[in-house]
Design goal:
Layout lengths: L3 E7 L4 E4 L6 E10 L11 E9 H10 L5 E14 L5 E14 L11 H7 L24
Parallel strand pairs: 4-6
Antiparallel strand pairs: 1-3, 1-5, 2-3, 3-4, 5-6
């Protein structure tokens, strides 16, 4: 099964392109998704994840999503490779959006996850009421 659920903030406005063959809309943007843990003495870190939305969903994202907004994305991970003009191979991993939701409140500046929570519940999958599924005793215990 290949299913991804993300909630984060747009790092830039969606970029819109059209396919050459049938003029299909493709919207690309990046989400800053906070990690669930913070190492003691460090600031919270985020991962920057590339998102691609096609057709009507791409139109929706390009029209309504703006830099800084908090959004929820459901989709699948996809990897692609291609050779550039110099013959160098490039690899990219991205999330192909299948659903997109607003996660900010309607009033600007007020933080609320009501749209996301109404869809997915009060917490992200795997989250517990304490906020973490595990306890980290030292950085030596981490697998990375």
């Amino acid at each position: 099964m290949n299913k991804v659920i993300l909630m984060g903030r747009l790092t830039r406005d969606p970029e819109v392109r059209y396919t050459q063959t049938n003029n299909t809309v493709v919207a690309s943007f990046s989400l800053a998704v906070n990690r669930r843990f913070v190492r003691q003495g460090e600031e919270r870190q985020a991962d920057f994840i590339n998102i691609v939305a096609w057709s009507k969903l791409g139109e929706f994202c390009s029209k309504y999503f703006k830099k800084g907004q908090q959004v929820g994305i459901i989709g699948r991970i996809q990897t692609r490779t291609w050779d550039d003009d110099q013959g160098q191979k490039h690899y990219v991993t991205e999330v192909v959006a299948e659903e997109a939701y607003f996660a900010d409140s309607k009033r600007e500046g007020e933080m609320s996850n009501s749209s996301f929570e109404s869809t997915f519940g009060n917490s992200m999958p795997g989250a517990t009421s304490g906020g973490m599924d595990f306890e980290v005793s030292s950085s030596d215990d981490l697998p990375f």
